[in-house]
Design brief:
By secondary structure, the chain is mostly helical. The chain contains 4 helices and no strands. Helix 3 (55-62) crosses helix 4 (64-70).
């Protein structure tokens, strides 16, 4: 599949981020400039700054390889 097709599938799936805003992942991916020269990076945000949350901490402490496999 072409990158644009994958982004379209993710949008169709309704997948959302784990943060408090639940931002649509496909929409976020559509902001990527695929034609930009140079290296590409994947950034995983595991910030726990929302009051009372510990969703990312549990995965990072107990199953960190799930994040690597998910990439």
């Amino acid at each position: 599949m072409a990158p644009a097709d994958i982004t379209s599938e993710v949008k169709t799936s309704g997948l959302r981020g784990r943060g408090g805003a639940g931002f649509a992942t496909g929409t976020k991916w559509s902001f990527i400039n695929r034609d930009a020269p140079g290296p590409k990076y994947v950034v995983i945000n595991a910030d726990e700054s929302e009051p009372g949350t510990s969703k990312d901490r549990y995965i990072l402490e107990n199953s960190p390889h799930l994040l690597v496999e998910g990439i």
